[in-house]
Amino acid sequence: MKDTVGRKLRLLWLQSITCNGNTHSFLNHPELFSLLSHFDLVHHPVLESGYSMEELTDKKIPCDILILEGSFIEEGFTKNGVEVSSLVAHYAQRAEYIVSAGTCATFGGIFKQKDPEKISGFCFDGEERTERYEHYAQKLISLPGCPIHPRWLSYVLLMIASGKKVALDSLHRPVELYGYTVHSGCTRNEYFEWKIDAKQFGLKEGCLFYEQGCQGPYTRGSCNKILWNDITSKTRVGTPCFGCTEPEFPKVGLFSTRTNMGIPATMPLGIPRRAYLTLTGVVKSFKIKRFSERLLEYDK
Amino acid sequence: MKRKVIKKLIEKIEGEAELNYTFDKGKIEDVKINFGFYRGIEDILVGKSPKDALVITPRVCGICNHAHLIAAVRAIENGYGSAGLKIELTGKAKQIREFTLSCELMQNHIKWLYLTMLPHLEKYLKLDVTGNHAVKAAYFSTTITKAMAVFAGQWPHSSYAVPGGVTCDPTQLDLMQAHSLLEECIRFFEQVVAGIPLETYLEITSVSSLHTIGGDFGNLLHLLDKSGLAPRGGSHDRFIVFADSFLAASGKSIVTSVSPVDARYVEESEQQGSVAKAVTYKNRLYEAGPLARGMVSKEPIVKNLHKRYKDALITRIFARIHEIGRLLEANRNLLSRIRIDEASCVLEEDMKLYEFEGTGAVEAARGSLIHRTTVVDGRISSYEIITPTQWNLSHGNEQEKGVAVKAMVGSGTEEEADFIFRAFDVCSVCTAQ
Amino acid sequence: MKMKEKKALKRESIIQTALQLFSANGFHKTTIPDIAAKLHMSVGNLYNYFSSKDILAQEIIKYTSEVLGEKIRVVNTMDISAKEKIYKIVEIYFRMAKDKPEMIEYFLRVYLSNREVFNDGCEGMVCVSGFITEIMIFFDDAVASGELRNQDFFSAFGLFMGYLGGMVFLKGEGVLPKGIEYYIDDISRNIYNALKN
Questions:
Q1: Chain A residues within an 8 Å CB radius of B41
Q2: How far apart are CA A111 and CA A120, in angstroms?
Q3: What fold characterizes domain C59-195?
Q4: Which residues of B touch A25 (CB under 8 A)?
Q5: Nearest one of B294, B293, B302, B300 to B243, comparing CA atoms
Q6: More confident call, A299 vs B200
Q7: Chain A to chain C Cβ contacts (< 8 Å)
Q8: Which of B37, B56, B346, B347 to mutate to test the interface with A (most CBs of A within 10 A)?
Q9: Helix (H) or strand (E) holding A125
Q10: Rounded to an integer, what distance in angstroms lies between the CA atom of residue C105 and that of residue C114?
Q11: Tell me: the pLDDT tens digits for B300-325?
Q12: What does the radius of gyration of chain C's CA atoms come to, in whole angstroms?
């Protein structure tokens, strides 16, 4: 262990193959600057920071917490003439904690699809462990999401800063963030319970799981608990969940539910198919008047 | 003095770029711009469902993702139209889309002002960095993207615009929330950015009254003027706008004369030694972005600045920040017009259209963004994305230098060229998709 | 414990007896005293088990649906092709129509013909879910494995069960020239051909 007593932990944010979405999502944190005041920001892709990109590529920067954004390729992506893979290896060895911020850094994400054999997440390739896993598993915290929610990252950073242990699941995701499904807390839950599908996009009424491709019931994430932009979520504005925190994101056909003879091909997380179908058959047998009407009647 | 080549890494521009300046007799005579990694979003889309583009293309760029969504949905709607299914969006859907898009533009412009322009100008002029720029950038952008999320569900990476409209079905409560967040940003603009009431600001049309602008914007104008940078950075003085928006109708402007454009004449070509493709319109290079919108729409204060400075730094920088004021006012009007009893989405079911070709254009923060989708057998067979920065940052062709390159040519130092380069609001990730 | 088991056995024998009487004589013509008499029990005691004739009728449909569902569930867990599963399901259905005709007759002649009895408590699929769930699982597996063509559930279900129900109805009417088992082979082939990919 490095001696970190009496000084702030040094934070290094390093980008690989990315869209910068996690960077910008993080900038939306309402308490960004009081949060950052707990740390020494040694390098960041957008914010003023202690060291330049040139110093980063010269491998000169000290770091305690390494935040990774973007997916990885062994060869062919350089910054200032230095392979990003070697930069990451350098800093990953020195860091006390590695946070893979976003689905790309964690599992490979969208950019993995350009070259699935060569591009992957840092320690995972989809759900499979990469060679790096053994080296870094001890200090790895996975924060999948396309993008990450700013509060997911601040939770992890503040836990580290206060010397607390972050409880993780088998893919190194914090259980307090990924123990839920995106479905929990969705304002359309009543429609899911009663198996009322959304007739079309653009309505408050109906559940998006049956037709519109919503993956909320089997996607891990706190999107409907820790709200986006502190105000809402995809499903709350009628957009399906696309499963962006999952190792296989993105699947094909994101706006339609894959069904076999009308039966959803993927069951809600951990629900046996027989149990789900039994419940569906029963619940669908009732016509609930309230659910056949507009939720809010303005004319009455 | 000998010819020499100086290599410089430019960072904090939505990724990085490597600039190779060729100096001759103490002045820059050419610049080669190299961007990072080609990520191949266009290739990733091949074989996917047409609507998957609404989820995948925003991931081209973390800062202008929403513009990609709007271009993608317009491309599909245009494709449906060419296959015989004409879509007429409701006023509500149009207004909500325009509102959210404008919020993203403002988010972008304010970050550019506070994270790029002011700190780099202060650094260039060796002034004390005033410190809280980032706090200001974050406060405004967090607030305006929150207003946007009321409808779009989240920022970044919303996919709430779907063929036929939008997925949200807002209540009066939602509208009110968006409205008060917007008013908070207007207050910020008045007290911090421009130092004068929005109404007063928008009445400014003459260069002689620019001194009434206070705040950080006023300070920036003052520094540009005092340092002698204001008239630097001129380029081809040709501008192009492809999408109609509140800011400008589409068109091109050459020596102040405006004429129509047709996206069919846009051509993309590979550039040797760069992962970014170059774009031309009928073989000529054009500048895209806020200055182009100001020129094509003949926005009075932009035209008057142009009359004095042509397409110099001061005009380019002013045009971008000026859009914040215009968009704040426009969004206020948009919100007051939204009727919640109109339909959010006019398409009642998933369209079974298996063959179509469509083009969608949108005015993004950095200029015209164009998406082209070709669908065969219900799957995307090819997808083309032309980003604004490809217009501004290409090397150019045999006849002429690229827009940003020409603007940098003649600079005496790489620090000056660096600032001129950043004034284009460079986005590395969009350029090398 | 023993008392509980005894009660369960009694309950089942009431269901089976009522099932036979309802199927043979019709729902309306069969009375609670008829059923009690056949079971050699008092009417009052029978009401301890089922508080009304309607409730008894509903319990019977749940019971038959579960018996049938249980048999199809066994087929669903077998490692065989969808084509073979179709054969087995048709076989189960027709054998039951032959060996325990009252089970199927009840469904066709009581459940489907006296909807008013089932409206309150057996809406839609509530009382037949034991059976429907297994058919859903059969379809889901068969489409997932690529053997059957993906389509709306009811267009497939109607073809399958409508066909089987129709055949049993014809048998009940006495118009089938041959024993029902004779038709298992052809009918399962027809169903497979209609639904296959």
A1: 110
A2: 8
A3: Tetracycline Repressor; domain 2 (1.10.357)
A4: 62, 156-157
A5: B293
A6: B200
A7: 59
A8: B37
A9: strand A124-125
A10: 13
A11: 999 999 999 999 999 999 999 999 99
A12: 18
Residues 123-162 of chain B whose Cβ lies under 8 A from any Cβ of chain A: 129, 134-135, 137-138, 141-142, 145-146, 148-160, 162
pLDDT digits (tens, 9 = 90+) for B95-125: 999 999 999 999 999 999 999 999 999 999 9
Residues of chain A with C-beta less than 8 angstroms from the C-beta of B18: 80
Nearest neighbour of B142 by CB, restricted to A28, A232, A296: A28
Check: CB of residue A16 under 8 Å from CB of residue A77: yes
Determine the residue among C61, C77, C119, C129 to mutate to test chain A binding: the one whose Cβ has the most chain A Cβ atoms within 10 Å: C129
CB within 8 Å of chain A, chain B residues 61-100: 61-63, 65, 93
Percent over 70 (pLDDT), chain C? 99
Domain spanning A180-291, CATH class? few secondary structures
pLDDT of residue B382: 97
Q: Domain ranges in chain C?
A: 59-195
d(CA B5, CA C136): 71
For A52-68, what is each residue's pLDDT tens digit? 999 999 998 999 999 99
What is the domain partition of chain A in residue ranges?
Answer: 9-178, 180-291
Report the candidate in A288, A180, A158 with the shortest Cα–Cα distance to residue A227: A180
- Percent of chain A scoring above 90 in pLDDT: 91
Q: Which of B157, B158, B347, B380 to mutate to test the interface with A (most CBs of A within 10 A)?
A: B157
Q: Tell me the mean pLDDT in the region C131-136.
A: 94
Structure token digits, residue B299: 């926005």
Name the pLDDT band for B14 (thresholds 50, 70, 90): confident
A261/C124 touch (CB, cutoff 8 Å), yes or no: no
Return d(Cα B355, Cα C40) in angstroms, integer. Answer: 73
Q: How far apart are CA B89 and CA A203, in angstroms?
A: 15
Helix (H) or strand (E) segment spanning residue B222 = helix B215-227
User: In which band, very low, low, confident or very high, does the pLDDT at B175 lie, cut at 50, 70 and 90?
Assistant: very high
> What is the structure's pLDDT at B9?
87
Predicted ipTM > 0.90: yes
CATH number at residue B227: 1.10.645.10
d(CA A3, CA B95): 56
Q: What is the H or E stretch that residue B385 is in?
A: strand B379-386
Tokens of A97: 């904690």
B residues 283-342 lying closer than 8 A (beta carbon) to A: 340-341
Residue indicated by tokens 């005496």: B412
Distance from CA of B50 to the nearest CA of A (A): 8
Q: Which fold has domain A9-178?
A: Rossmann fold (3.40.50)
DSSP string for residues in B299-344: -HHHHHHHHHHTT-HHHHHHHHHHHHHHHHHHHHHHHHH--TTS-S
How many independent structural domains does chain B possess?
Answer: 1
Residue A286's closest chain C neighbor by CA?
Answer: C123
Record the tokens describing residue A187, joined without a space: 């304002």
Q: How far apart are CA B230 and CA B221, in angstroms?
A: 8
- A232 inside 8 A of chain B by CB: yes
Q: Which domain holds residue B189?
A: 4-431
- Nearest CB to A202: which of B56, B156, B167? B167
